[in-house]
Amino acid sequence: MESLWFFEDVNLFQILCPHKFKAYKADHDFDAYKKQDYIYFEDDSANKVYLIEKGKVKIGYYTEEGDEVVKAILTRGELFGETAIFGESKRDEFAQSIDNTTSICPIGVETMHDLMRDNKTFSFKVYKFIGLKLKRLERRLQLLLFKDAKTRLMEFLHELCHDYGYDCEKTGDKIIHHPYTQKDIASLIGTSRPTLNILLNELKEDKIIEFSRKEIRIYKNSA
Questions:
Q1: Where in this chain does the record put each Cyclic nucleotide-binding domain (predicted)?
Q2: Percent of the chain scored above 90 by pLDDT?
Q3: Half-sphere exposure (CA, 13 Å, Cβ side) for 212?
Q4: Strand stretches in the chain, DSSP E
Q5: What is the distance between the alpha carbons of residues 120 and 3, in angstroms, rounded to a whole number?
Q6: pTM (2 decimals)?
Q7: What is the Cα Rg of the chain in Å?
């Protein structure tokens, strides 16, 4: 299954960050952010794209009623703010650090265009990322519109398994070590944290999963 929330197996930071390229290394710095710091707001000028060196970044927007809608939670190696590449002048979303040690690699649009022009691997990874990001956002919106919270959670768990899981040799269960908090997961599947807790405990009682803070086990017979 295609990854819906995460960009599978491509650490763009390792390939694209300008400090990897001799011509840009001297003038390149990283930006540090604490938890709840904003990297940019809606309607800010879109003149950079960003790569995450470490930490986590939430991408979202606010409805007219003031409700927050979370589009994605991104981690190390992922790209955001990419619409600037295609000439968008203003942001239509916000980007916020949700980790106390987030480090961002900012890339000016002109530098990005130069790197894409001069590096085919760079260009391929960027276009692949953007295409998959649009597909998973469309899929996520379909889930939010047409599926109940429990179904959204189960699909999310299978996506976590796809991105972070491995087989336990002794039992055949799927073990998932992931970087997301319960608050992150609740935001991503469009529900509240108390509702998420209820759903997780129901799945636990039904012997479908076992979970702790950073690990989820999906039992073999339920996978």
A1: 12-91
A2: 37
A3: 4
A4: 31-33, 38-40, 48-54, 57-62, 68-74, 79-80, 94-97, 102-108, 165-167, 174-177, 209-211, 215-218
A5: 24
A6: 0.75
A7: 18
